């Protein structure tokens, strides 16, 4: 049996979209130049609809690059102004959310570590409440479909209707080919319980390595997912986070060219 959520389809907030929802941009925004150059290259591809860039980075261990912080919001505004692409970033608390909405970001997403915390989801919901922002919710790091649904319900109960699920895989229990385990049966369960929810795949965080992006993306469409979030960087070899899984905008185009898209229902 399905669960009743009052959710608007992607077309309601992105009326020009006729294809699967493709979101791309760097794992982390690093400099104004890197942000704008990557965005300019992506904007040439009409299949890319939303530009993403992390400004507050939830690193597993301290000591690595934790993002440029609020200054990155200004760079996202510049991307939006110059390319016309809607822009989005990850938020992990009320303050991030307030700043992101104040900066006019179109999309915010809740990362896998934060989806696992009902308190964090609630404080984000309380800030987004009453706005038109799109909130994307990654699966929690652990394979718990109820926790994922609970986060979506919590946001929906605050009146937030522009919701999207993102499957980014689950922490594996042993070393596997991929960085995070894509548990496709969890997606099937989510679709069964929330049939109206648009769900996209994040092959970058599933793969951990760029060479697997195509096979995971194809599988996502074969399963009936509605789009992709793929990390891209003007020069992945210099990226300050997730360098092995990022692609250049030209490599992204090649992946999109090869995909056979059967089922996207946006
Ligand atoms: C990201 O999108 O850059 C990110 C940190 O993702 P996740 O929450 O899936 O680990
Ligand atoms: Mn990343």
TrEMBL record:
Protein name stated in the entry: chorismate mutase
EC number: 5.4.99.5
Record-level GO BP terms: chorismate metabolic process
Single GO molecular function: transferase activity
Keyword set includes Transferase: yes
Domain of life: Bacteria
Tagged with keyword Transferase: yes
Portion of the full-length sequence here: 1 to 266 of 363
Keywords tagged on the record: Coiled coil, Isomerase, Transferase
Annotated signal peptide: none
Lineage, top ranks: Bacteria, Pseudomonadati, Bacteroidota, Bacteroidia, Marinilabiliales
